[in-house]
């Protein structure tokens, strides 16, 4: 069922790198689940032709556009470029999600509805009703351990700090100092949520079931995990606290 957006302009951001097999189905899924929502594909010059396919999609679907980047610089840089574009274009809600169907478009209607009462809505694997599917024991342990570790160091109550399925109000993106964000990967997701909390914004979690990617290969690496483990300490001591 398609969801409306209370007349607010909504942009769904899809960062891509070698996602040619997934791009068509995921954009169709987003457009089918929502009404009046636009999609921005942010492609980092994918060698497999994802960017060219995205351009083809825009010729037949006016709700989709593409931001081409010269090279692969990591997920965080792609999202920051997309957020800057969204703010410049006047969008009021900005959703970030994976292009590999790990985040199911069926959750978008509820996420947008919850944004009526929250400044940041997180699709969470670790609240009641949430979970993951297709992960082995080690991947599940790594994810849960990373969240517990970050939550205790940062002293916050959000259960899924590493989630990459989020809906921001533009006020959050304007306030949290995007040009000063230096994290990538897991750490990027943790940092955005932590900055929103430190600025006193209303953050809520909604249950989702995270499904391991249908096609292609995971881009997670031990370097990404290590960055998250070290960055949370600098976040804790560098971010000012602001109660609104």
The CATH superfamily is Spore Coat Polysaccharide Biosynthesis Protein SpsA, Chain A
**Shape label:** globular
- Fraction of helical residues: 40-55%
Could you spell the SSE succession in H and E letters?
A: EHEHEHEHEEHEHHEEH
How does this model look, in words?
The protein is α/β, with parallel strands linked by helices. The protein has a single domain (10-238), classed as Spore Coat Polysaccharide Biosynthesis Protein SpsA, Chain A (Alpha-Beta Complex), CATH 3.90.550. Helices cover 41% and strands 18% of the residues. The protein has helices spanning 20-33, 50-60, 75-88, 108-114, 137-154, 170-175, 185-198, 222-238, and strands at 10-16, 37-43, 64-68, 93-96, 120-124, 131-133, 166-169, 203-207, 209-211. The strands form two sheets. A seven-stranded mixed sheet has the order 3-2-1-4-7-5-8, sandwiched between helices. Helix 1 links the parallel strand 1 and strand 2 (37-43). The longest helix is centred in the middle third of the chain and has 18 residues, at 137-154. The model has no long low-confidence stretch (mean pLDDT 89).
């Amino acid at each position: 069922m398609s969801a409306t957006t209370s007349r607010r302009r909504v942009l769904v951001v899809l960062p891509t790198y070698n996602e040619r097999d997934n791009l068509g189905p995921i954009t169709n899924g987003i457009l089918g689940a929502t009404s009046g929502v636009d999609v921005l594909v942010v492609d980092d010059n994918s060698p497999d032709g994802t960017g060219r396919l995205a351009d083809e999609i825009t010729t037949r679907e006016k709700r989709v556009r593409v931001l081409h980047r010269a090279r692969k610089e990591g997920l965080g840089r792609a999202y920051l470029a997309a957020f800057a574009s969204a703010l410049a274009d006047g969008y009021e809600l900005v959703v970030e999600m994976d292009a590999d169907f790990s985040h199911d478009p069926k959750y978008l209607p509820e996420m947008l509805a919850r944004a009526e009462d929250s400044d940041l809505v997180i699709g969470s694997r670790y609240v009641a009703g949430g979970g993951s599917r297709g992960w082995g024991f080690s991947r599940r342990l790594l994810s849960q351990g990373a969240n517990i570790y970050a939550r205790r160091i940062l002293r916050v109550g959000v259960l899924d700090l590493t989630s990459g399925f989020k809906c921001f109000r533009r006020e959050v993106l304007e306030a949290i100092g995007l040009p000063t964000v230096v994290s990538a990967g897991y750490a990027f997701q943790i940092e955005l949520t932590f900055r929103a909390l430190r600025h006193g914004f209303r953050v809520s979690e909604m249950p989702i079931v995270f499904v391991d990617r249908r096609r292609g290969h995971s881009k997670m690496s031990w370097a990404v995990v290590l960055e998250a483990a070290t960055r949370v300490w600098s976040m804790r001591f560098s971010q000012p606290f602001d109660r609104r």
